[in-house]
Structures are given as structure tokens and as C-alpha cells.
Write a structure and sequence with these properties.
By secondary structure, the protein is an all-beta fold. Helices cover 0% and strands 55% of the residues.
């Protein structure tokens, strides 16, 4: 099941939460972060949010573990995909919190 999330609260770096997809094993999240910076020895431009270590939890504090983070280039620059393991006790019908040191999003799907 994939859906466009409803943002309830947002602070920190400017990102757009675009899509949340639930599979049997994963919670897949697509963000857009248009603030870029140079990375690596070639100075490749990547979204600043790629430097963030995200957590995903429900209102009761059940956490899903981040297993992969990736970002596209070219016309997809700024797009960031996150994959979390789907914890069986997580309540996806309640508010969810996606957070890092510099991003805090509360949303519903």
C-alpha cells in the first residue's frame, strides 16, 4: 500500500515528505530535500538530508530500523529514499514520527 502522507508537524531542515509505502517487510519513504552540498572528492551535489540518520517510530514508541538510504541524480536530484524494516508492533494507523538530528516530521498515512 502506498499513500501520500498528511504532515501534522514539521521542524528543522526543509524537506517534503512525498510518499510512504508499506510492504510486508519494509516501510519505504520518499523525501525531497532541495538544499544541496558538495560531497566526495569529485564534489558531487547531494541533498543535505543524506547526511542525516533517520528514525521512524509510532506514537507508542515502537521503532522501525533504517536499513537503506539512497538519493538520485540528474532530474531526480534532491529525491531521497529511505527503507525501514517493518516492525510488527508498529501502529501505522496512528501518528508516525520521522526524525533525525536536524529534521522532525510528524505525519499520518
Amino acid at each position: 500500500m502506498s499513500s501520500v502522507p498528511t504532515i501534522l508537524s514539521q521542524t528543522g531542515l526543509p524537506v517534503q515528505l512525498q510518499l510512504v509505502e508499506l510492504t510486508d517487510e519494509y516501510v519505504l519513504i520518499r523525501l525531497r530535500g532541495n538544499d544541496l552540498h558538495a560531497s566526495g572528492h569529485h564534489g558531487t551535489q547531494i541533498p543535505i538530508v543524506m547526511d542525516e540518520w533517520f528514525t521512524l517510530e509510532d506514537a507508542q514508541g515502537s521503532r522501525c530500523a533504517l536499513v537503506q538510504k539512497s538519493s538520485g541524480g540528474g532530474p531526480f536530484i534532491g529525491q531521497v529514499d529511505l527503507a525501514f524494516t517493518r516492525a510488527p508492533e508498529t501502529d501505522f494507523g496512528a501518528e508516525l514520527t520521522l526524525s533525525s538530528e536536524n529534521v522532525h516530521l510528524i505525519f499520518a498515512i
